[in-house]
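Thanks for the sequence, V.! I ran Terpenoid synthase right away. Repeating your input here for the record:
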Amino acid sequence: VPYCSSIPTAYESHFWRASIDASWKFIELLAKDESVADIPIRGDVTLRTIASHELRPGFEQRSARATAYMYPFCGEQRRLEIIAVLMTMLFLFDGKFARICSENCADLFPSPTTSSNSPLQSYLNAVITDIHASDRRAGNGGAEVHAEMRKTFSYLRPEATLTSVEEYLRFRRQNVCAGFVFASIKFSIASSVDMHQPHLVQIMTWAADHLSIVNDLYSYAKEARAFNDKSCPDLINVVSVLQRVTDAPDDESALQMAFALLLQREEWMFEKLTNLRSTGALDEETWTFLRAVWACLSGNVMYSMTCERYGGEAARI
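Predicted structure:
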């Protein structure tokens, strides 16, 4: 499986084992929690059945390693554990939402004052408490992580046929939960940086595109199979958009065009960062954040390349 990036280095957090254990604990509690037994996801499938299925052998090869690859500069084990739980929620429910369950799923991610005797809710309450406690010690990204996570619980599909690549990417920046990823980067390094400062707007847009295109490149084969055998009702992927708007003769041609879009974003980001460095426009805290963003992007490539979730058994390491 190719490494689809010009970024030469990917990293892994030395807290990787703790992040996998935290993900496992959350899914184990979800699989046992009777309060979510009847929340429908699709047809007769419930949250509990999805969680129980995820506990089968090979757990860490599907999605659990993504956190350690995408947030390698995280300075505290507990912060990475928190991100791992939230990332697991995103992966677990990805593509499985129905409108009927979105509010119920959001309720799984409580406000800091929510009380419950359920082991699952107690576990999630502790996650929320520790998010805000982390902010009191250093940085202010925890509140942003909490807010962005709750935004992800929606049934996000295009309202109409997407007629251009740019239109698709505008949609996909939200669909890929880029806001949550960037807030988690900030939280992981205990930063107080303003992610929305004018100098960063274009870079963060390209970074969101990068997350989207990488996900689409590596998941296309799996998604196309699901669409063709009618187990998935739609094919939301930049490769299929490129095929449609360019009349590409085959999948391989569209995949190559998607890869070119990815390399283009990397070149644009590198040129922008080089210019900002030469002008001295950014402070050191912002540069620390941008280095973590760069590492997150290459980590997402590394994870996508090696996970069984996209590449099947052959992709495992």
